[in-house]
Amino acid sequence: MRTYHLVLLTGFGIFSLISLFYLIRVVKEGRRSDPSQPEGRVLPAVVYALTASMSPLRKETAYLHVPTYTAGLLFHVGTFLGFGWLAIHLFQLRIGPFLTTGSAFLLMVSAVCGLSILIKRIVTPEMRILSNPDDYASNLLVTGFQALSALTLLRSDLIPVLFIYGGVLFLYIPASKLRHTIYFFTSRIHLGIFYGRRGIWPPGARR
To answer: Domain 3-19+37-197: which CATH class?
Structure first.
């Protein structure tokens, strides 16, 4: 095993342990008893919370800013795609040229989306005043990860560099706003349980 493998696996291991700690703490806090009487079904509400509730048709912050919403969506897709390719490179799986080239294109598009979101944060006064250094650092780190992932698909000699970069990224996630990768799912599930129990989600649940 090479040094760059150890960097990646060490970063991922520390990230996993800290993420597990956060997850256990959040789940424990969310298990408080609810005195309300059940009015609806929880499972459909949880599914709705993780899917349709985030649609531009249901989310005000989305339908008022559709281009930014779309860029953000692609940016997140690119991040997960990059993590997927990290695993593919690590286990040396064989992937056809069509998927490889397509992934490289999508990763470049997502990196451009990340850069556009960063520029908007810088030039928009309302966003700039609410931003802190971590907002910029997190965006730059993830955007760089996506761009490097795309280049690695075109030049395999960059894989060691990607592994080291990925290890650093995994170490940075728990200490930054990027830890919302954990809180996103737990918060959406909690919302689904809360509103599903009251028969509010999904819309028309009581009809």
So the answer is: mainly alpha
